[in-house]
Amino acid sequence: MASFKHTNAVNQFINSCVKVVKKRCTENFKKDQSNELQTKFFREINVEWDKFYMGPPISFNTSSYGIVVKNNAGSIISIELDSYIVEYKKARLQLIETVQKNNDVAKTFFYYNNLLQAPYWDTTMELTKLMVSWRKYSYNDELTILDENNKTFEIDGKLFHTLVVQSVNDDKYSVDKLGIGMDFRVNGCVYWFATKETRDLVIKYVMNDKIIEDIDMKRKNV
């Protein structure tokens, strides 16, 4: 590891942070991934220590792709695995190429097709079939579309609006392979719509029965 010159007090602070990161990484990652993250964090905290030293409380959070260290003042050290960075770049390129290659006005949305192992544009006719299926699963509490995942992203100069289909009862879905390209890390299948109006109509149709049912239950419990 590189050599850094700090006061004893600063070194003690850095070592305390390193110990926490080591514990979190050891608990949550394979040995080689843990070592990679610890090495990267050691370099970062030795450079950025002054943003955290004697500051607000620090939090240490891990995910499947790395670790984030931050305080209440807004200072952040985000350490990501090299493998995730590669996935991010690949997904980003796939998104741009997908948008650039579509010249068919009949195809109004796209998603990552796991069978084809590639992004796939689809038509309104196929969307209608999906909506009927999703509505059925939503009503039976097997599927959900959360408002917090309804986002707008700019890809190659064009706006796309997302909804994310997620399973309610199990871990059927992993992190969406295209969402990674917009730093949109979410478990489920992300669908990208060219217009917000279409996206919103889909959500309303799929979730409407469930929303009405929830409202009725709340009224009964009042």
Largest sheet descriptor: 6 strands, antiparallel
Overall pLDDT = 88
User: What is the number of domains?
Assistant: 2
Order of helices and strands: HHEEEHEEHEEEEH
**What oligomeric arrangement do these chains adopt?**
single chain
Proportion of helical residues: 40-55%
- DSSP strand count: 9
Strand percentage, roughly? 15-25%
- Structural Rg: 22 Å
Structural class: alpha+beta
What is the distance, rounded to the nearest whole angstrom, between the alpha carbons of the first and last residues? 62 Å
Unreliable runs: 211-220
Q: Please report the number of helical segments.
A: 5
Principal-axis shape equals: elongated
Explain what you see:
The structure is a single chain. The chain is of the alpha+beta class and 222 residues long. It folds into 2 domains: 8-80, no CATH class; 85-221, no CATH class. The protein contains 5 helices and 9 strands. It has helices spanning 8-28, 31-48, 82-101, 124-139, 196-221; strands at residues 58-63, 66-71, 76-80, 107-113, 118-123, 143-144, 152-155, 158-167, 189-193. Strands 4, 5, 6, 7, 8 and 9 form a 6-stranded antiparallel β-sheet that branches. Helix 4 packs parallel to helix 5.
